[in-house]
Design a protein that fits this description.
This protein has 14 helices and 2 strands, in the order αββααααααααααααα. It is mainly alpha-helical. The chain has a domain at 65-240: MetI-like (MetI-like fold). Helix 3 (65-94) packs across helix 13 and helix 8 (154-179) packs antiparallel against helix 11 (209-223). The protein is globular.
Length: 288
C-alpha cells in the first residue's frame, strides 16, 4: 500500500512533466485567444490594436465558414464509416490462417506509415490523374471518358485518400481485439448451429465494441485537423475546403493572424462539441 510519503514523492516527480504539458497546451491557447481579439497584420502594419469580437464576427459570417464546417464533418464521418467497416472485415480476414500471413499483415498495415503528403501525391499523380492516371486508363479500357477526380469529385477523392491512410490503423486495432476473443465461445456457438452472421452479430461485434470506440475517438482527433491531403491535391477548391484549411488561408494567404486565431477558437469549439457527442454515443463502451 502506498504511504503518504511515497504519494508525495510521486507527485514531486510527476510535477515537472505535468507543468511542461500544461505549458505546452496553455501557452499556444492563450496566445491564440489573445491574437483573436487583436487586429494583427504582420505584413501590413503589425499589431493595429484591439479588435474586440470583430474577428469572430467576420470569420463566422464569411461565405466559406459553414461550407468548411460541412466539408469537415462529411470527411470525418465518411472516413470513420469506411475505416471501421472495412477494418472489421480486414481484421477478420487477417485473423484466418493463410500462407504468408505475416507478410500480408505487413502489406496491409504499411500505408499507415506513409506520410500524408506523400500518399496524397501518389494518389494525385498515379491514380487520379485524368490523363495518365491508373483510373483514367481503367475508364478508357471500359470505353468511358476519364474522370477528373480532384475537380469533379473532390470531396469523395479526399475521403478515399484519407481512408486509405487510416484503414491500416483501424485494422491493426481491431485485429488485436479479435485475437483476444475466446475461441471457445465461437466453437460453442458453431456447435449449437448458429450461422456465421449471428456469430458475428452476437459474439464478435460486441467483443469489438471497445476497440471500435478507441478507433473512432483517436481517428476523430486527427481527422478534424486534416490539412496536408487537401493542400497537396485540391488546394481547398471544388468544395473540399475544411475548417483547418480555411484557417490556413486566413493566416498565411491573407496575412491576418487575428482572423485566423478567431478561426482557431472556432475549431477548438467544434472539436469539443464532436468529442462530447462521441463520448456520449460510444464512450460508454470504455466502461463496459
Amino acid at each position: 500500500m502506498a504511504t503518504k510519503a511515497s504519494r508525495s514523492a510521486a507527485r514531486v516527480m510527476m510535477a515537472p512533466a505535468v507543468i511542461l504539458l500544461l505549458g505546452w497546451m496553455l501557452v499556444p491557447l492563450t496566445m491564440t485567444l489573445w491574437f483573436s481579439f487583436r487586429k494583427y497584420l504582420p505584413l501590413r502594419g503589425g499589431d493595429l490594436g484591439w479588435a474586440g469580437f470583430d474577428n469572430y464576427t467576420r470569420f463566422v459570417t464569411s461565405s466559406a465558414f459553414w461550407p468548411s464546417i460541412q466539408a469537415t464533418l462529411i470527411i470525418v464521418g465518411a472516413v470513420l464509416l469506411i475505416t471501421v467497416c472495412l477494418g472489421v472485415v480486414l481484421a477478420m480476414l487477417l485473423d484466418q490462417p493463410m500462407w504468408g500471413q505475416g507478410v500480408v499483415r505487413i502489406l496491409v498495415i504499411a500505408p499507415f506509415f506513409v506520410m500524408p503528403t506523400v500518399s496524397a501525391l501518389v494518389w494525385k499523380n498515379i491514380f487520379m490523374d485524368p490523363t495518365n492516371g491508373l483510373f483514367a486508363h481503367l475508364w478508357k479500357f471500359f470505353g468511358a471518358d476519364p474522370v477528373s477526380w480532384l475537380s469533379q469529385a473532390s470531396l469523395p477523392s479526399i475521403i478515399l485518400i484519407v481512408s486509405w491512410q487510416w484503414l491500416p490503423f483501424a485494422t491493426l486495432i481491431l485485429l488485436t481485439a479479435i485475437q483476444s476473443l475466446d475461441s471457445e465461445q465461437l466453437e460453442a456457438a458453431e456447435m449449437d448451429g448458429a450461422p456465421h452472421l449471428k456469430r458475428f452479430w452476437f459474439i464478435i461485434l460486441p467483443h469489438l465494441a471497445r476497440a471500435i470506440t478507441i478507433v473512432v475517438l483517436i481517428q476523430t482527433i486527427f481527422l478534424l485537423s486534416i490539412f496536408a491531403e487537401i493542400f497537396v491535391t485540391t488546394g481547398g477548391a471544388f468544395g473540399s475546403k475544411t475548417l483547418t484549411y480555411l484557417i490556413f488561408q486566413r493566416v498565411l494567404e491573407s496575412q491576418n493572424v487575428g482572423l485566423g486565431s478567431a478561426g482557431g477558437v472556432y475549431a477548438i469549439i467544434l472539436a469539443n462539441i464532436v468529442a462530447i457527442f462521441l463520448m456520449r454515443i460510444v464512450g460508454k463502451n470504455l466502461d463496459a
